[in-house]
TrEMBL record, chain A:
<feature type="domain" description="FAD-binding FR-type">
    <location>
        <begin position="19"/>
        <end position="121"/>
    </location>
</feature>
<feature type="binding site">
    <location>
        <position position="251"/>
    </location>
    <ligand>
        <name>[2Fe-2S] cluster</name>
    </ligand>
</feature>
<feature type="binding site">
    <location>
        <position position="243"/>
    </location>
    <ligand>
        <name>[2Fe-2S] cluster</name>
    </ligand>
</feature>
<dbReference type="GO" id="GO:0050660">
    <property type="term" value="F:flavin adenine dinucleotide binding"/>
</dbReference>
<keyword id="KW-0479">Metal-binding</keyword>
<dbReference type="Pfam" id="PF00970">
    <property type="entry name" value="FAD_binding_6"/>
</dbReference>
<dbReference type="InterPro" id="IPR012165">
    <property type="entry name" value="Cyt_c3_hydrogenase_gsu"/>
</dbReference>
<dbReference type="InterPro" id="IPR017938">
    <property type="entry name" value="Riboflavin_synthase-like_b-brl"/>
</dbReference>
<dbReference type="GO" id="GO:0016491">
    <property type="term" value="F:oxidoreductase activity"/>
</dbReference>
UniProtKB/TrEMBL annotation, chain B:
<feature type="binding site">
    <location>
        <begin position="67"/>
        <end position="71"/>
    </location>
    <ligand>
        <name>substrate</name>
    </ligand>
</feature>
<dbReference type="Pfam" id="PF01180">
    <property type="entry name" value="DHO_dh"/>
</dbReference>
<comment type="pathway">
    <text>Pyrimidine metabolism; UMP biosynthesis via de novo pathway.</text>
</comment>
<dbReference type="InterPro" id="IPR013785">
    <property type="entry name" value="Aldolase_TIM"/>
</dbReference>
<keyword id="KW-0665">Pyrimidine biosynthesis</keyword>
<dbReference type="InterPro" id="IPR012135">
    <property type="entry name" value="Dihydroorotate_DH_1_2"/>
</dbReference>
<dbReference type="InterPro" id="IPR049622">
    <property type="entry name" value="Dihydroorotate_DH_I"/>
</dbReference>
<keyword id="KW-0285">Flavoprotein</keyword>
<feature type="binding site">
    <location>
        <position position="162"/>
    </location>
    <ligand>
        <name>FMN</name>
    </ligand>
</feature>
Length: 281, 313
């Protein structure tokens, strides 16, 4: 049961990545902390030509207690074409993720992807700075994988409620990322402190590009700093989806294009967009 | 060799499976071979540009979904310059879908899309989102008749009237559409519905209300398909909640000449070609050469039939 799906990203890379519907096998689905789980799948290699920031559309299992109906879009946490492995880090929160939490090793799991347009790393971007919070860090983890592959320096400012709630920092470090942790607990995650941290980083080593996702507060801050220092950036955004392929027009968000405001589909034109074109919410 | 072909008026389709408008676009062309489908039905367009409804535009309910997309449209020029040529590459009949706020605008757009490459025009006289509180032409026989007459005068192409389940007069509306000049009836669009988030107490759709689709809708639209097939003398295309081969067969037995598959494609992007395969296998196993012995074969009996129609009129 494998279908080839048109990928909107196919124009932007030489290999022409494709999307597929495929049945994977659950390798593990363990707690990452009290609220998050890491789902690791044994996946066919042909579905693993992924770009950082792309997502899969997941067919969550129907159980006695949970009956999710539509697929759930979820950003890729990690992928390994060599090993044939695909992973998702998710917060157990709604009907879909509660159903996903019941998956056990050996279970089948139907995924559709990789979908959407991911993050880009331009040839002359050497010092990359990512700023993300909570589960948003999962979305940005493949960027660290790609930065390492390309030999670029990546700094990750990881924000969370508390030190204990910080996710993925070890994963980032293993990929060679310099990690700066900030928390609500000690007040270091405030916008003012983040601004100071980022300004210092710009002054000391320079920053060629910003990467973020999910948070309105971080979007505003990075837009401000990006404008001030003329630093480009990209943001991954979320929206409820139905088809995930661009057909149903359900997942639109507004973007600034020159003097116009246009509605773009998160599944097809996104989920990664230009930082300055994105609009707060 | 099983023959799955069906006739919808003057059009012959290679099989009875086609997408429902709004759940299909060029984007599906790489997941499945569009030439394997019976027809290709475009998303509804309006003449002017429309941005659509506020988000959230969909939500799920148990085993089904609600949507209130609001017909975002790139307008008729985009459609003629891009969409029609794209589908012209396939040897499957391409069906335009149009909507408008007034009968005159409707007729004007109908004329504009009557171009080579368009095999039929589905007239969405039923979309529950486009007018306030879901009012639509196809809610009443009188407004159905008048808009269909205007549309009939605007084109020589086959006209498929897409009816709404949001009416208490489905039989009268079906007959009005036929008298107004429809070549086929598509039964039906989504059913106006609502869902509320108990925690926030907000409606789950940005537009407050929206159309129910998916398996929960099927028994209702199947009933209406049956009623319309009985009451009208033009072909009926069944639509609503079709997910499995059994669903397809039910609609055909109820009297549908063909069916449209919508929400199922969101769950499984290859749902339509899977249904074509399953229908082929079924016919082989049953030893049936073509669909003529299935379509309209419901064993309802005279007495039950008259009682049923009475009970609902």
């Amino acid at each position: 049961m494998t279908g080839q799906v048109h990928s909107p990203a196919s124009d932007s890379t030489e290999a022409g990545p494709k999307a597929f519907e495929a049945v994977c096998t659950v390798k593990s689905n363990d707690l990452a902390n009290d609220a998050y789980r890491l789902l690791v799948l044994d996946a066919p290699r042909h579905i693993l030509k992924c770009q950082p920031g792309q997502f899969f559309h997941l067919l969550c299992p129907v159980t006695d207690q949970h009956q999710p109906y539509l697929r759930r879009p979820m950003s890729i946490y990690s992928f390994d074409e060599e090993v044939g492995e695909l992973a998702f880090l998710y917060k157990v929160e709604g009907e879909g993720t509660k159903a996903m939490a019941t998956l056990t090793p050996g279970d089948s799991f139907n995924v559709l992807g990789p979908l959407g347009v991911g993050y880009s790393i331009k040839p002359d971007w050497n010092n990359l700075l990512l700023v993300a919070r909570g589960v948003g860090l999962a979305t940005l983890a493949p960027l660290a994988q790609e930065a390492a592959r390309l030999g670029r320096k990546l700094t990750a400012i990881c924000s969370a409620r508390s030190e204990a709630a910080l996710l993925s920092t070890e994963h980032f470090r293993r990929l060679g990322t310099e990690v700066i942790s900030v928390t609500d607990e000690d007040g270091s995650s405030s916008v003012d402190n983040l601004r100071r941290l980022i300004e210092a980083r710009i002054a000391e080593e320079g920053v060629d590009a910003f990467y973020t996702c999910g948070s309105n507060r971080l979007l505003k801050l990075l837009q401000e700093l990006g404008k001030k220092h003329n630093i480009p950036g990209e943001i991954a955004l979320e929206q409820q989806m139905a088809c995930g392929l661009g057909m149903c027009q359900c997942c639109v968000r507004p973007f600034r294009k020159g003097d116009d405001i246009v509605q773009l589909r998160v599944c097809k034109e996104g989920p990664v967009f230009d930082l300055q074109e994105a609009m707060g919410w | 060799m099983v023959d799955l072909s069906v006739s919808v008026g003057s059009l012959t389709l290679k099989n009875p499976i086609m997408p429902a408008s709004g759940t299909f676009s060029e984007d599906l062309s790489d997941v499945l071979d569009l030439n394997r489908l019976g027809a290709l039905v475009a998303k509804t367009i309006t003449r002017e540009l429309r941005s659509g409804n506020p988000t959230p535009r969909v939500c799920e309910v148990r085993g089904s979904m609600l949507n209130s997309i609001g017909i975002p449209s790139k307008g008729v020029d985009y459609f003629l310059q891009n969409t029609v040529p794209f589908f012209h590459e396939y040897d499957t009949p391409f069906v335009a879908s149009i909507s408008a706020g007034t009968a005159d605008e409707f007729a004007e757009l109908c004329e504009q899309v009557s171009v080579p490459g368009v095999s039929a025009i589905e007239v969405n006289i039923s979309c529950p989102n486009i007018e306030e509180d879901g009012k639509a032409f196809a809610m009443r026989p009188s407004t159905t008749l008048s808009v269909m007459e205007k549309l009939r005068g605007a084109t020589d192409l086959p006209l498929w009237a897409k009816l709404t389940p949001n009416t208490g007069e489905i039989i009268e509306v079906a007959q009005a559409a036929e008298h107004g000049g429809a070549d086929a009836l598509v039964v039906a669009n989504t059913l106006l519905s609502m869902a509320i988030d108990v925690r926030t107490r907000k409606p789950k759709l940005g537009n407050l209300m929206g159309g129910l689709s998916g398996p929960a809708l099927k028994p209702i639209t199947l009933r209406m398909t049956y009623q319309c097939a009985k009451a009208a003398n033009i072909p009926v295309i069944g639509c609503g909640g079709i997910t499995t081969l059994n669903d397809v067969l039910e609609y055909l037995i109820a009297g549908a000449s063909a069916v449209q598959v919508g929400t199922a494609t969101f769950i499984n992007p290859t749902a339509m070609t899977a249904l074509v395969d399953q229908l082929t296998t079924y016919m082989e196993e049953e030893g049936l050469a073509d669909l003529s012995s299935i379509i309209g074969s419901v064993r309802d009996g005279e007495a039950a039939d008259s009682q049923f129609l009475e009970a609902t009129s």
